[in-house]
Amino acid sequence: MLEECHPQTVERALYQIHEGFGIINELLDGPYFASLLKHEYGNYVITTAMKNYEDEVLLRLVRVIEDEEDSLEGDPNTTNIRKELKQFRKNERANQISKCRKHAL
C-alpha cells in the first residue's frame, strides 16, 4: 500500500495518531525501510515519525534506524534523521541521569 503513496501523503497521515501507528508498523516491517531512510523525500516521513511519536513506537523506530546507522553516514538525505537520533539519545541520557538522581535521594 505505502509504496504507492507520495511521501507527503504518508507524512500527513502520521499526524493522525490512529493512522500513524499502522503506517509506522507497515514502514518498519516493509522491505523498503532502509531505502526510505535515504530517499530524497521519504526521509522526512521518518523524521516526522520520530518527532511525533513516543514510547514503544519511537523505541521500535529508533532500534530499526540504529540497525541502519552505519549506512546513513555521509548521505545528505539522512541529515535530519541523524539529528533526531542524536536528540533522542541526548534525551534518553538525561532521563537516565534524572532517574538515578531520584533514586539517590
Automatic annotation (TrEMBL):
Example GO BP: regulation of translation
Origin: domain of life: Eukaryota
Keyword field: Repeat, Translation regulation
Pumilio repeats: 26-63
Gene3D superfamilies given in the database record: Leucine-rich Repeat Variant
Entry GO MF terms: RNA binding
Protein name per the record: PUM-HD domain-containing protein
Organism, as annotated: Amborella trichopoda
